[in-house]
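Q: Given only this backbone (298 positions), what sequence would you predict?
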């Protein structure tokens, strides 16, 4: 059984740790608020890009582009090399956030082994390195500081692979915070698109006459680069928000566990202190009785 001094030192250590977890929870909350505001500020631009792509499909019934399947009903044998962007965090202490992304990435690799991995986040880099899984490139410091510039850098690398034919499909594994209260990990095909993602089936073609210079495909291909960058940026910020949300939950749970442990230790400390006081009183009483007997014998 631990002594009262050891229990007291343990209580002090837990209280100090609780202060740290409380501060980390507040920091995560502030970062989450800031990241959401930045995403909300840029989202309308990329929604407008998607709207313009939709307008192109409604204007031109048949659009040829290497970034699109010609028709959703047509079958395509895309069994070549894939390129996959996996977004993790640079730091731990975020509950199961990183583990969920890593498991989803391993599931994707088991379904298609011929995949080139591009990893965002130090946690993901270390995870794949420990398991001997090769990564083509790791983007350092991007997870903790998602910016449009970094998103464009990643998009340029992935698009170069796709345009040169080195990758037949581009995938992205990230944590989506838009789907509901609880963030979910998903793997999404980034390229090639289906027309149905922008043009609804059965939607009428617009009769307005638009001129596209130098061509519809050229305009579409140029817009797609910005759209892909925007999608990656959105995924980076979504993942960052999910990471901060997971860290807030983890630190809150740690604080609750610390309170519970403090209650148990305080109870044990008080019981031992009371036992020590009772023992001292008993010893003093016994000594007084012994002295009284000695006096009576004399």
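A: Predicted residues:
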């Amino acid at each position: 059984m631990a002594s009262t001094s050891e229990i007291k030192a343990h209580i002090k250590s837990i209280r100090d740790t609780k202060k740290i977890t409380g501060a980390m929870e507040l920091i995560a909350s502030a970062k989450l608020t800031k990241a959401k505001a930045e995403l909300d500020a840029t989202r309308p631009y990329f929604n407008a890009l998607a709207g313009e792509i939709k307008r192109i499909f409604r204007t031109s019934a048949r659009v040829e582009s290497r970034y699109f399947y010609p028709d959703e009903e047509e079958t395509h044998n895309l069994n070549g090399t894939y390129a996959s962007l996996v977004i993790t965090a640079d730091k731990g202490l975020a509950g199961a956030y990183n583990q969920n992304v890593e498991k989803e990435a391993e599931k994707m690799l088991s379904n298609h082994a011929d995949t080139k991995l591009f990893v965002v986040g130090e946690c993901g880099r270390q995870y794949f390195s420990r398991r001997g899984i090769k990564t083509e490139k790791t983007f350092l410091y991007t997870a903790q500081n998602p910016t449009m510039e970094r998103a464009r850098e990643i998009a340029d690398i992935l698009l170069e692979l796709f345009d040169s034919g080195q990758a037949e499909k581009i995938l992205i594994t990230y944590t989506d915070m838009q789907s509901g209260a609880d963030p979910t990990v998903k793997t999404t095909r980034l390229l090639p698109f289906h027309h149905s993602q922008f043009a609804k089936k059965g939607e009428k073609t617009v009769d307005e006459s638009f001129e596209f210079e130098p061509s519809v495909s050229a305009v579409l291909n140029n817009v797609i680069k910005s759209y892909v960058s925007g999608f990656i940026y959105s995924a980076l910020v979504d993942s960052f928000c999910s990471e901060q949300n997971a860290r807030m939950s983890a630190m809150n749970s740690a604080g609750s566990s610390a309170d519970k442990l403090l209650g148990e230790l305080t109870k044990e400390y008080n019981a031992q202190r009371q036992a020590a006081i009772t023992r001292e009183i008993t010893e003093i009483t016994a000594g007084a009785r012994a002295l009284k007997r000695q006096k009576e014998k004399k």
